[in-house]
Structures are given as structure tokens and as C-alpha cells.
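Same chain as my last thread, 728 residues:
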Amino acid sequence: MRRGVGRLSRRTAILCLLLSVLIIVMVAGGTVLTAIGEVSRHANQLDDDRSRQTTAGALKTFLTQLGATLNDYAAWDDAVANVYADDTAWMISNLGDMSDNSALFDVTLVLDNEGKAILAYQDGRPQTIPPQDFFDPSFWRLLEEAKSPNRAIPEARGFVRTRKGIAAAGVALIRMKSGALDQPAGNRRYLVFARHLDGKVKALGDTYVIKGLHLAAPDHADANYVAIWDPAGRVLGKLAWPSRAPGDVSYSEIRNKLFTAMGLFGFLLAAIFTIGFIEMRRLKSDEEAARQLALTDRLSGLLNRAGLFKSLASMIGEAKDTKSDVALLYLDLDGFKEVNDAYGHGCGDDLIRSVSAGFRCLIPEGAVLARVGGDEFAIAFVRKNCDAAAQSLAATVLNFFDEPFQIGERIVTVGTSIGIASSQIGTTSGEEVVRRADIAMYKSKESGRGRAFVYDTSMDIDRETILSLEGELRKAIEKEELGVVFQPVVAASSLDIVGSEALVRWNRSGGRPVAPDVFIPVAEKTGLIEPLGLFVLRTVCARAGAWPDIGIAVNISPVQLRNPSFASQVAAILDEAGIDPSRLTFELTEGYLIQNPQRARQSIERLKALGVRIALDDFGSGFSSIGYLRQFGFDRLKIDRSMVSGIDEGDAARSLLEATTALARSLGIPVTAEGVERETQAHVLLDCGCDELQGYLFGKPMAAEALSALLAEQDLARRHREPRQSFG
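reply #2:
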């Protein structure tokens, strides 16, 4: 009987224990579910808040871009001279026509002090609707704000309603660039730019990764929106979007799994009441956390290089089992170093975080994302026949960088170069896939950046060739085995030699010539461009002493221009050679100006302070922004040979050339035309206003001795009063 009571007591104890465990599990499960519910709601709120902040920032950027463009056109000396002189043709050409297919504004008005339209254009055509009928009354508040004497800058901007829809509009007093204006108050005129939001909302949503972003009416009831206010404080409309509710999605996915886990946990809980087992689990957890921390990049929160290789090894094993492929995209940010140098490492760190957040939204499900270096990232995923998916993802990533990033109050622009490689059916190791993708990425950078290249075996051959070329070039620079040739530059009116462009030449061992467009890029990539450039400059200055009556032009690389000590190196070389700095002209292309205008301006100012002249080379071959001519104060403009060769193609090419030279003359910049090969071209270039010509018609690049002979012949002809042939 006692044994039965004992068994009953033990059973009761076991039942009580199990019941206690069950209660604990149920309470814990309920608590966990409640906590997860709170987390999901918080996640939903955070996502909606992020979208709201992003949308508000997009609207602010939309308006800020318009304001920057308006300021550039309104604070313009030429605008003051022509608008107040009622030069209608000038206003149409420089203001009205600019509204055609412009990404920055589609409506242009010039108003007098009473608000009457002197010029009204929309989408490149005259606007027939009076401004009072085209704009909502709140627009005129902007005009009054711009006219207010209390404003430090006579400009105002905001969102208004027009006949066409909702637009960002700005009003600015037309004034000198310095801010001065010698017009009485009643005679002042104002420039108006408007940029309509309609039709651009989807692009904003795609750019800022806000799915379903749309323009809604003021009474729209969706909880997620950012109101668009006019200057009168009325809501014009709303940018609205449906909530993605990521927390709800996660909650629904985890709830059933949590119920199952609770049941299993209930059975296991009875066995883990000892201190030793708890301690063992704690130690194991700490070990796993430390292991995970070692695989994570602390700045971005992504996997680091070690984490990438570990994930690749796992993916390659999976690919072997499933007969799939592993694709790897290797990305390097273009322009990141310039951002770091210009704004500091804090801004650079924030940019890395922003880029990382964007990548998280772009990568496919199951993909691995890692930061493997300072500004290098990698994306890996497993797919059957992965090539098309990899290239599609690369295109999406490139599109992501089309829009600038807002970092605090700064707008920064970076791009990316992408290399793609794959492990077919898991047959290539992770280390080799990374190496191949890295090579493809450098091929992308060499080809102009902002693009994606897929690895092929020829890239290894190209890289070995470049390494070999680098070694020989380094030795040639050290031993000064390179040569410098000079191509004459003549005055267009007299054909007298007035200058020469210095060009570096290199013959490899065995006398094999290497084209400059082959070894110059190698020098820039490997850091050899600086000693190479200094060698050329020393050689030129040493030779220039024999030609006191002509100027000498030397090409410089962006790498040299970025060097803070370059100006002092130039000064030392000029002083050693005893050369007047005004005889030396540095020619540079616009690529570096686009990447980092502020730093380029500082470098140019340091050089000009020495007395050296600066020329913008290859104008017309690329972006060719008028703003750069006005902003950097170039001493000379060199028209690219592509514009010269186009003379024979018809009147349009000649008109473009005439417009270019007229623009340069209006800014007080002399013009040199390159690539002149026929007398007919020289005639046209002289007629168009070019003051100097350069090309095979007047002489190919030649040795210094040959140039000296030409100059001696020219001096002899002058003494005998035998002027050279003129195209005038």
C-alpha cells in the first residue's frame, strides 16, 4: 500500500512538474507572441517613417535642384545686359528654348516689376496663357517674397498649382553675379522657372525605393503620405503610398513556427534545469556571437570579406548538389575617394551606410551581401543558368546610382563599376570566383566606369600584359628613356607658329613604339603618371629656353591635379629652367571637373597663382558644359578634332562650331582648333573666329630640333619681309 502511495506521489510530482512546464511554456509563448506583435507593429511604423522621411527628402531635393538652376541663370551678368535691354532673341535662345526637354525646368517666364510677362515659354514653345491664368494665386506670393527688401537673396521658391498640374516654382531677381543691380525698383525684372511634378512621381518612387508612390488629391485618406503645401499654406496634393507592412509579413510567417517551437520547448524544458546545462548553452551562445561578429563588417552591418568567403563556400556546395550556378557581382564605388577627401570620413561613412541600405533593398531573396573593402561590395546568389539574372541585377544596381545621395545637408554623387563572374555547377572555388570578378571590375573601371563587365579569360591575358607594360614603363621613366615631341600651333590669320603642344612618346625595348593611349592609362592606374608628368615638364622647360617667342602646352592628368604639392613642383621646375610661367599652358579635360568641381577649382587656382595658363582640352567631345567655362575661368578653349572633322558634314556642324566660338568670345576665351588637316577646314575655322590652329596641315609632332629649324625659317622670312601665306 505504501509503495502505491509513493508511486502516486511521484506521478503527482511529475504531473505537477509537467503542468508547471506547460504553464511556463504557455506564458512564455504568449509573452513572446505579444512581444513579436509589438516588434512587428514597430517595424511597420519604422518602415512607414522611413518612407515618409525619404519622400519628404525627395520633394525637398526636387525643389532644391530647381532653386540651384534658377540662381545660376538669374545671377548672371549676361542676363542683366540682355534682359534689361529687351533683347528678345537673346531671352528666347538662352531662357525660353532651355525649357525644351529640360530635366530641371519646363516653364520659363521673365516678369516685370508688376508681374506682367515679358517672356513666357513652356516646353520650348511660347506660352499663350497669361501667367495670371496659368498659375494659382498663391504663386504671386513667391514674387512678393522675391521682391521683399528684407531678403538677403532676392529669390523665393515653393510648390504651386498650374493649369498643367502641381509644379515646383521659383522666382528670382535678374541681377549681376555679384548681386549688384543698377536698375530702379520699378524697372526690375524677375526670372521664373517651374518644374512640374506630374509624370515624375513614378521615377521618384523607383529612385528612392518607395513602391506604389503616387500623386493623390488633397483629401486622400491613405495613412501614408507627405503633403505638398503651397506658399499660402494650402495642401495642393499628397505623395502617397501603400504600407508594405514588413512587420505583419514577418509576424504571419513566424507565428505557426513559434507554436511548433513552443511545443518542442515544453518537452525540452524539463531536461534543462541544471546550472551546468544553462552555463553550457551560455558559453555556446557567446562563442557563436563572437564567430558571427568576426564575419560582420561593423560599419555597414553586412558580411565582411571572411563572411563572404564562408558564404561562397556554402553556396558552391549547394550548387554542386542542385546542379546550379553561383553568381558573384563585385562592385567598387566610383568617386568615393573624392567624397571622403572633400567632406571628411564621417560623410564617407554615412555614404557607405546609405549605399548598404540601398543594396539590401535591391538584392534578390537568398542572396548574400558583403562589404569586402573600403568602398568595395559583393553580391552572391545561387541560380540555375545565372548569367542573365546576374546581368539584370547589375543593370538594376547601375540605375540605383543614377540619382545622387543626400547625406545630411549635402548632395553627393557616386557611381559604381561592376565585375561579374560565376562558378558553373560549383566547379570554381570561391577564391577564384572573387579573383575573376575583381579583374572584370577593374576592366569596367578602365573602360570608363559606371558599367558592368562579365569575366572572360582574355582579361587575364590583358592584365598580364598591363603588368608587363607597367614594369617596363617604370624602368623607362627611371632611366629617362622616353621622348618628347612637339606639334606646332599657328596663328589662324598669319599661319606663324605661336606655340607648340608637347607630347610624350615611348619606344619599348627593341624599338617597338607604344601608343600614348595605351601607356598613359597604365601610368594613371599604377601611380606612374606623376613621375612621368614631371619628366615631361622638365624636358619641355629645358627645351623652351631656345624658343623664347612661343608658348608651350603640356597635358596634365587628373591624378597630378589632385596632388596638393603639384603646384609647388611646377614652380620649382619653372624656376630651375628660368621660364616665364605665362609661356606655359596646362591642358586638361573636363572629366575631373565633373567628378569634383570644388577640388578641381582649388587646384586650378593654385596653378594660376603661379602665372601658368589653363586650357580646357577636347571641348565638344563629351559633356562640354557651358557652366565649366564660366566657373573655372579658363585661359583658352581647345575644340576637339571631332568638331573640326564634322565641318565637311553639312551646315549643322558649321553652325555648332560658330556657336562654340561665339560663346568663347563672349566669355573672353581665345579658341584653338585641333585636328586641322585640310585648307578648307582652316578657311572655315578662321571665318568662325578661331585664333589658333593645330593639326597635320601645319606639322606633325616632331623632334625639338625640327621645331627649332621651323622657327629659324620663320624668323628668316620675317627679316626678309616675306610673310607666310594667310587664309585671311
